[in-house]
């Protein structure tokens, strides 16, 4: 599991750890890890390379200056550009001077950057507030130009200008090829739009672990998913493995039913029951489906329902949503059903409910503009989970799963190629199937998103949504070869 902690948690853990150590120990640990990582990103090593350290006035600048000193000690030509010469970290400056580095002001930044092989962004870390101020923004521009002519930009702790806690980019920010972060990941490194500014991530252990509280955000890794995947046992039969009911499709959109069933057949449930008017299309493609024309209440027992893809919004659709919400089994609500599901009825349910909106649907449910949700995905998915007292999976560039009282999850496997018609229908079927197989709503959402993203990454693009469903068994085996 990859964990991310908010600034307040990092600060209190740092204070507790620092109280046990001689002054300056943490910064030296951070700088040592940073310098080592810089050696790793420079092809051909550090010796003789031109390094520019951009140093702000806080401890982030201090880290960068100490790392610059280490690189100078290994034979790099290091120039530090201080944003404000009178306020830069004095001990960091002294260390760099001793190691033979040069120190200069912002006026000389363009010339220094034009020749740089490596740029260290040490303007702001977790102490940064808002978008970069004008002088820092100019340095970010100059660093971008250097990057375009081949310099590697490494952000210290965070790309300066991104919000560590929320993943927002309120104004100008650095764009890094890699970010070396200290002690723990920060939510902003994992959530778009900020995550896009961070490049490849490297975590340096500075000993914070024992002092950190529960994370604000976590990302499943292969081994976590392998542990959660449902595996049939010797005594399993199709009912014990779970039956997932899919209420989807309409005369107008029969394909959504086929795609949702295609996802559901690959999610580990023992059987898929389809309810709706697209039974012929579903059977034509997947003859193993149990088909009934409806309504859901008469379809037979299921362990979880998926409702919504291509459903439409006529009175039959409304009735189906009401019937499904009245069942005492987990329900996944997607697409058209999101609009039709009464908030109070969802809040009153005892069995788990999982909503799977994209940004536009989430915006409509919260009565805000879509751009608002895209700008601050983490806070909006949390608001929605609280408003519906449900688990919410917010689809998009970084898919998030939120539930009150537990760390949010961010999916690490997404790809922009998933922005294709029908891809959400496959995800809802796949995730509902995991629910029917017994996973909690939070685990089903995060494992579903993980497999879905991985399947897309292992499918040659451009692809159609049905190909993602076809690819799920392959990635399931890559995650858990024996399952
Ligand atoms: N506290 C600790 O024990 C450790 C801290 N570390 C480093 O210290 C950093 C935090 O240091 P600080 O608390 O000093 O804060 P930062 O250095 O992150 O930022 C504070 C400085 O940035 C300026 N600033 C804030 N917002 C700005 C904006 N929008 N545009 C331009 N300038 C802006 C402030 O005026 C101040 O000078 C971490 O990110 C990490 O890099 C590491 O050395 C590890 C140990
Ligand atoms: K930084």
UniProtKB/TrEMBL annotation:
Q: Which keywords annotate this record?
A: ATP-binding, Isomerase, Kinase, Lyase, Metal-binding, Multifunctional enzyme, NAD, NADP, Nucleotide-binding, Potassium, Transferase
* PROSITE patterns given in the database record: YJEF_C_1, YJEF_C_3, YJEF_N
User: Can you tell me which residues bind AMP?
Assistant: 395-399, 424
Q: Where does (6S)-NADPHX bind?
A: 59-63, 125-131, 157, 256, 310, 358, 425
Any one Gene Ontology BP term:
nicotinamide nucleotide metabolic process
Query: What are the recorded GO MF terms, alphabetically?
Result: ADP-dependent NAD(P)H-hydrate dehydratase activity; ATP binding; kinase activity; metal ion binding; NAD(P)HX epimerase activity
Q: How is the cofactor bound?
A: Binds 1 potassium ion per subunit.
Span of domain YjeF N-terminal: 10-214
Which coenzymes or cofactors are required? K(+); Mg(2+)
Q: Which residues does the annotation say bind K(+)?
A: 60, 121, 160
Q: Which reaction does it catalyse?
A: (6S)-NADPHX + ADP = AMP + phosphate + NADPH + H(+); (6R)-NADHX = (6S)-NADHX; (6S)-NADHX + ADP = AMP + phosphate + NADH + H(+); (6R)-NADPHX = (6S)-NADPHX
**EC identifiers of the protein:** 4.2.1.136, 5.1.99.6
Extract the CDD domains matched here: YXKO-related
Q: Where is the YjeF C-terminal domain?
A: 221-479
Return any one Pfam family short name.
Answer: Carb_kinase
The UniProt subunit note reads as follows: Homotetramer.
Q: Say what the protein does.
A: Catalyzes the dehydration of the S-form of NAD(P)HX at the expense of ADP, which is converted to AMP. Together with NAD(P)HX epimerase, which catalyzes the epimerization of the S- and R-forms, the enzyme allows the repair of both epimers of NAD(P)HX, a damaged form of NAD(P)H that is a result of enzymatic or heat-dependent hydration.
The record's HAMAP family line, in alphabetical order, gives:
NADHX_dehydratase, NADHX_epimerase
Entry's PANTHER family? ATP-DEPENDENT (S)-NAD(P)H-HYDRATE DEHYDRATASE (PTHR12592:SF0), ATP-DEPENDENT (S)-NAD(P)H-HYDRATE DEHYDRATASE FAMILY MEMBER (PTHR12592)
Task: List the NCBIfam families.
Answer: yjeF_cterm (TIGR00196), yjeF_nterm (TIGR00197)
Instruction: Give the similarity note.
Output: Belongs to the NnrE/AIBP family. In the C-terminal section; belongs to the NnrD/CARKD family.
What is the protein named?
Answer: Bifunctional NAD(P)H-hydrate repair enzyme
From which organism does this entry originate?
Streptantibioticus cattleyicolor (strain ATCC 35852 / DSM 46488 / JCM 4925 / NBRC 14057 / NRRL 8057)
What phylogenetic lineage does the species belong to?
Bacteria, Bacillati, Actinomycetota, Actinomycetes, Kitasatosporales
